[in-house]
Every structure is written in C-alpha cells, then in structure tokens.
Hints:
This protein is α+β, with helices and mostly antiparallel strands. It is built from 3 helices and 8 strands; from the N terminus they run ββααββββαββ.
Amino acid sequence: xxxxxxxxxxxxxxxxxxxxxxxxxxxxxxxxxxxxxxxxxxxxxxxxxxxxxxxxxxxxxxxxxxxxxxxxxxxxxxxxxxxxxxxxxxxxxxxxxxxxxxxxxxxxxxxxxxxxxxxxxxxxxxxxxxxxxxxxxxxxxxxxxxxxxxxxxxxxxxxxxxxxxxxxxxxxxxxxxxxxx
Length: 181
C-alpha cells in the first residue's frame, strides 16, 4: 500500500524558533492530550470529529506524539539509537556522528529535525486497527494531512502551513472544544 505524500509547508512564524523550542502562544492543546501548531490543531480537531462521526477514534499515541519538545526528542533518540555499529540497521546522523537504530525500536528523526518539533505531526495510536488507517487514507488529505515516509503509517503531518482546509475554522478560545472521550 502506498501512502500519499504531499509537500510540507512550514508556517513562516515557526521558522523563527528552534525545532522543539516553540513558545506556547503558537501551540494549542488537543484532546485527549498533547499540543499542535494553531492551524494543525484546528484541522486535527475537525478531522477527529469527522472520524468519530464515522465510528473511528483518532488520538495520539502519547502526550509527546504531537508537539515534541527538543528535550524529549533527545531523550527518545538516545533510547532508540546507539553509536555502536549494528549491521543492517537504519542510521541517523546527529551531532556529527552516525547512530544505529537498536533492534525492536521504531525509527525517529534526529533531534531538532522532527516535524513533531514544529507541532505539525501526530503519531496516531493503533493506526492499523479498527479501520483507522483506511479512514485516514480516505479522508486525511481533505483535512491537510499527509504521510512523510511509507514505513510509518502512524506518522501523519499537517502540510498546509497557515492555511486551513475548506470548512475548518480557527476557534476563538480553544482549538479542541469537543467533549472528552
């Protein structure tokens, strides 16, 4: 199955800040937990509501699987990667060194390069169950979400920058005002 990939547009304001070090005023909370960049949060909330109307529940895998601060990016990277060569394992470059993915772990971007660090990505919990991936494949593009890599169907990213899809609006108070699940 080929996941649709679209070009990512990073909002200009986010380019002013280091990846993973965003001020709270550009982020909005999403339910049940986590934060996203303002337009990504509005779109995620609308998409989540639409999915729920179709009987599909969308949520991040954890509190840091939407916006991911740099300190968390580093911590998780050090858990998953080693500077000891591991034949046949994927690699990343970080701080001028080659790092090998430890067996049993999912890949992760090098710290400071993740779309999570801009509040533009969500790792969707249990994406392969209960029709979630199928629903996302059919509807995510309409909400401005796309995939980055084929090997990570759970990792989606908001690609429209400061633009919002038709029918999605920025709420005046809070982005995710839907009732708790």
